[in-house]
């Protein structure tokens, strides 16, 4: 479910449609080994999935730390809420309560994003390791955290393993995902006929397509090419930046052990779906990609994918979706070349066909008004999609026509890192790959320099913020602020890969602190990570808050985060007038602050894998 780019009129109409649907408790066949509550620390559940449920009331503390932990050789910073104008004493204590480091805070003053008086603490000079440290400032202790060189290794696995139980068209095996086993969703035997033969929106085409597979986009049952594109691209990019580490990273999925890196197996599940969304040969718009496929109306909470009764509909093709397909397929072609040559060739054919179709139909835009039953994902500026697709095709093929298209694009010399990139602004994806993946673009050194310059801007922002976030928009926080921060950190991490300069590596590690509790709410935004962690992200099948028999989202699931617009009723009622960093509530019905999505977890996956590689 996604509404951030709709007009106000369209938003109101879509919200009205959503809230008009009552919460209904359709049966969801989640399984557990022992009959306990699935996914919430049930006895016998796999440790990688099970996690302790965060109590509803954690004693608050003004000392805000990364509740997961810090690398012993990395930056270690904290923020303290205080109106004091002079430095405060701090002590770092180990598990036994022994003081191992001490010093004084640095007053930072009023933080405009939270409205809080703040101080900062830097205890980076301490290089010890161990568990259950606390930081005490002026007699007040933080929540516990670890100093561990492996602090992010499990997170990298969990963030990527999020995708397996998000799959459509396949039964989720409880042995692979303990507590999350369920029947296959949207297959031929589903109540609505599933995705095996989905008709087009009336009046747009006269055929049906088999669009089974892929990942459910978010907390609803829709599947969207323009969001699938960036998501699968970031998973493949995490492989391209570190192939050896990716090969060693075993994910929870049925393909594990097949001699193909697990992250690529997961990417293939989505790539196969994206190729199915291409208009078949012989049809009027052959080669274009349908924008999305979802229900004709919103389903209620909770609703198991296999129990969905709404009619499915294939939405018209769009230029943006077609170019997402071209970009993702072109990248997929080169990463699969050494593992499955025939599949790589198929993907390249799909990519070429899609790019040519987009050139022939450059202004087919999905309307912002189409937001009933699924997000609209409207986008009327596709220069960045053309640039991204041409970049991936050039890197994969080396052909001059694609290089010429890249260098002639208005995006090529624009500042694609001025704001955080996302599904609607994808020029940065092309720029990052042109900078890091081998190619002979004539001005490649300028491209690489632009990435470093972008990273410097994000690093300067991070270092200026009281809570160390690489994000400081004018006005309020945007929808998916957490993902935008992480995507900015991906730019900083890429600068480290290009230069080897320690400041970029430290910037990524320091920027992650915000996600895991060094923030105005003392909140970790990743399920299962931290003493006070999000656990009620908006989802129709991870709905423990509504039905105790159902699980919370899997460990390693990122919440969208503070959103000043407060589009949903729960957030608008509870958070009216909130300062930007405080515009978040861990409630399943707060879809504007607390949804989960595949592209938010792809940003977490990229950054987590980067951090895991820094040991």
From TrEMBL:
The species this protein was found in: Dactylosporangium cerinum
Cellulase Ig-like domain span: 61-141
Protein name (Swiss-Prot/TrEMBL): Endoglucanase
Family per record: Belongs to the glycosyl hydrolase 9 (cellulase E) family.
Xref: SUPFAM superfamilies: E set domains, Six-hairpin glycosidases
Entry keyword set: Carbohydrate metabolism, Cellulose degradation, Glycosidase, Hydrolase, Polysaccharide degradation, Signal
Active site: 538, 586, 595
GO molecular function (one): hydrolase activity
Glycoside hydrolase family domain ranges (all copies): 152-607
EC numbers, comma separated: 3.2.1.4
Residues of the signal peptide: 1-25
Annotated segments matching region Disordered: 102-122, 545-564
Catalytic activity: Endohydrolysis of (1->4)-beta-D-glucosidic linkages in cellulose, lichenin and cereal beta-D-glucans
UniProt keyword Hydrolase, yes or no: yes
